[in-house]
Each structure stands twice: as C-alpha cells, then as structure tokens.
Amino acid sequence: MRDNRALEAFTDQVARRLPGTWEPMLADVSRSAALTEVYEQLWDLGITQWALLEFVNDRLGMLRDSQGRELVVLPRPLRPGRYLIAPLVPTGTDPGTVEDLTPFGVSVSGSPARAAETARRRLLPRLDYALLLAEERGLYPGPPADDGHRRVRAATARTSLPTGTAPAVVFSAGPLRPATPHSGRGRVLAP
C-alpha cells in the first residue's frame, strides 16, 4: 500500500499548476470493478497500462478540467519519487474506436512544478490533438462547453517554441480525398 496522502498532495499541487482549471480528486480502486473501469478508459498503451496491470494501487489521483479532459495520476513503479500522468478516453467515447489516436502518458518528476510543466508541454498538446482528430471523425462529441475556439487552440498548441515565436495555425479542411488523374497528360490534379 502506498502513501495516499502524498499522492493526494501531489495531484492537488499539479492541478493548481496546469493551465486552466483542473479539479483534483482521489479515486478508490481497491475493488477490482473500479480498477477495471479506470483501466478500460485509460488512453495509454505504454507504461501506465503496465503499471495499472502489474502493481497494486488502492487509490489513483484524478484530474478533470472544464472541457471534460481527464488525467489519471499514479506513483511510478520501481522509481521512487516519480509519477505517471496519463489521459483517459473522454466519457461517452468508445475506447476501441480511438485506440489508434492514443496520446500516451508521461513519466514525471516528483516535483509538482516540473510535473505540471512536463504535462503542459508534452501531454496536453498530444491529448488536444487526439481529441480534435476524434471529433473530426465523429467519434467524440467535443467538450461540453465548446466556445468555438477549441479547434484553433488545439491546432496551435505549442510544445517547445522559443519565447516570442508565433505558432503556425493549421485549420482542418476535412478528410483527404485521393488524387484524380487528369486524362491524357500523365498529371495528377490536386483535390
């Protein structure tokens, strides 16, 4: 059994440092049904999936923001003082339909400030992009309080641009169509 007070304090401090408003809480996963529910919603095919399957945790940290994004926080096995933060598939979305869009979780330092910065820089842009693609495919209905600007925010999410550099804005034009050959000239016209 791990120290749940340390996990609760870490989750709370990370939530205060992430951009936007995140609600921290602890989830009781001591019953196998509760752990299975979290495991089925986990949007990570890497180390976090392994950690949930192979190691015992009776509590998990949970973070939820106003857009409906959810993250799970747990101590990293075999690495004292480190944690794992991974996204959950949005509520109402079938996990099997978005498996190919998996944004994967991150291993973070035990310092809440560094952990929040790692999640902000590496995890949240990947999560926003995966949600954007799922929304375009019609697999995810979008955030509950969509203000019309989420697509631009997701498309302009910065990962590690130098200060003062403007990010490139990418707008989706919808699904790509195959090129159509132009008869008699050996050229292919763009869609």
Helix/strand layout:
Blueprint: H1 4-17, E1 22-28, H2 32-41, H3 47-54, E2 59-65, E3 70-75, E4 83-87, E5 106-108, H4 112-136, H5 150-155, E6 180-182, E7 187-189
Antiparallel strand pairs: 1-2, 2-3, 3-4, 4-5, 6-7
Helix pairs in contact: 1-4
Describe the structure.
By secondary structure, the chain is an alpha+beta fold. 33% of the residues lie in helices and 18% in strands. The chain has helices at 4-17, 32-41, 47-54, 112-136, 150-155, and strands at residues 22-28, 59-65, 70-75, 83-87, 106-108, 180-182, 187-189. The strands form two sheets. The chain has a five-stranded antiparallel sheet with strand order 1-2-3-4-5, covered by helices on one side. It has a two-stranded antiparallel sheet with strand order 6-7. Helix 1 (4-17) crosses helix 4 (112-136). The longest helix has 25 residues, at 112-136. It starts with a helix and ends with a strand.
**Strand content of the residues, in percent?**
15-25%
Structural class: alpha+beta
Which segments are poorly predicted (pLDDT under 50) over 5 or more consecutive residues? 148-161, 167-177
The SSE order reads HEHHEEEEHHEE
Overall geometry comes to globular
Lateral arrangement of strands in the main beta sheet: 1-2-3-4-5
Count of distinct strands: 7
Helix content: 25-40%
**Radius of gyration from CA coordinates:** 19 Å
